[in-house]
Design brief:
Elements: H1 2-12, H2 20-32, H3 35-58, E1 65-66, E2 69-70, H4 74-104, H5 109-136, H6 143-150, H7 153-171, E3 177-185, E4 188-196, H8 206-209, H9 215-222, E5 226-228, H10 231-235, E6 254-263, E7 268-278, H11 288-316
Antiparallel strand pairs: 1-2, 3-4, 3-7, 5-6, 6-7
Helix pairs in contact: 1-5, 2-4, 3-4, 5-7, 7-11
Length: 317
């Protein structure tokens, strides 16, 4: 079952568009990672300048000059030695940089798709356990009691919010990630419902979240995914900002993603998912379609729970 579900997800997975520049970087990185290049070509290239320098030093008595430099001159000799060492360092640095850049651009879709399936299974498991407990409780007889017992949309919303964190920890590993669910009323932030991890709690006030320039308000107003790759750069923009600084806690660069959850009855935004990750471009516009694909799988379930919440409020009233 897991394999079939995974294949279904995998076939529909959107692919990020790679620029010509990125393709060139990946091409050269692939070459640099080949064994014969790493263990033969690169050592040979870095050894040639050093060998030439040694050769010229041996021929000092013969008056040999290297590229117009007199080896017998102390300053020229020091310059040549420094140049060779810098050249070796630069070649190694370029190879390391190519590898780092190429790997940074790739997301391991297999890992996070399996993580998505697993967290959704966990959410379903919570609901199944609640149904089983209700069935085993023979004291519950009335339909209204059964509905009250099995319908716990706020708990399900909490589990789904936690599930988002689990998936994004696979998409963006080794980063500090915070996921919260903001309740919206009349197209304005009302309160922060849930957040994960639970400590520390979000410190941004509802007033700041309600600022027209906040990431959340852009998401609510435009009714679509909103991404800020670098909060420090965003706040310095003279116009069209999508971030409001929380001066008490903003001590480092962050990336932010906001995603709307709709009330399917009136087609307005009911909640906003807030994902905050430390580091510039930890969340990248380049992978926006991938984020949308993953989040929508969870958001569809959130929208169902919101409908159940409205039905429950109607029966309670």
């Amino acid at each position: 079952m897991l394999i079939n579900t995974y294949k279904n997800f995998r076939m529909k997975l959107p692919r990020p568009q790679k620029t010509i520049f990125k393709n060139v970087i990946i091409f050269f990185n692939d070459i640099c990672q080949k064994p014969f290049v790493q263990h033969l070509f690169i050592p040979l290239i870095t050894t040639i300048p050093l060998a030439l320098l040694v050769f010229t030093i041996k021929d000092i008595n013969g008056g040999f000059e290297f590229l117009g430099f007199d080896i017998r001159n102390t300053h020229d000799k020091a310059f040549l030695i420094a140049t060779v060492l810098i050249l070796i360092a630069v070649i190694n640095y370029i190879c390391t940089l190519l590898k780092k850049y190429a790997e940074k651009q790739e997301i391991n879709s297999e890992d996070y798709l399996i993580a998505l399936i697993q967290v959704l299974d966990k959410v379903v498991e919570e609901k199944v356990n609640r149904f089983k407990n209700c069935l085993q409780d023979t004291s519950i007889q009335q339909k209204s009691e059964i509905f009250e017992k099995i319908t716990q949309p706020e708990n399900q919303l909490r589990y789904l919010n936690d599930a988002i964190l689990g998936v994004f920890q696979q998409i963006i590993p080794n980063k500090e990630i915070n996921v919260s669910l903001l309740e919206v009323e009349n197209q304005t932030p009302k309160r922060m419902l849930f957040w994960k991890p639970e400590h520390p709690a979000p410190t941004t006030s509802i007033e700041k979240l309600s600022n027209p320039n906040s990431t959340a308000m852009h998401c609510i107003t435009n009714k679509k995914i909103t991404i800020v790759e670098n909060t420090e750069k965003e706040i310095k923009k003279p116009h069209n900002k999508k971030y409001v600084s929380n001066s008490s806690t903003d001590v480092e660069e962050k990336s932010i993603l906001c995603y709307p959850v709709f009330d399917e009855v009136n087609l307005e935004v009911a909640y906003v998912i807030n994902i905050v990750v430390n580091g510039s471009k930890s969340i990248s516009l380049e992978h926006k379609d991938l984020y949308k694909y993953v989040l929508q799988k969870i958001v569809t379930r959130m929208e169902l729970e919101h409908i159940l919440k409205l039905l429950k409020e109607r029966t309670d009233g």
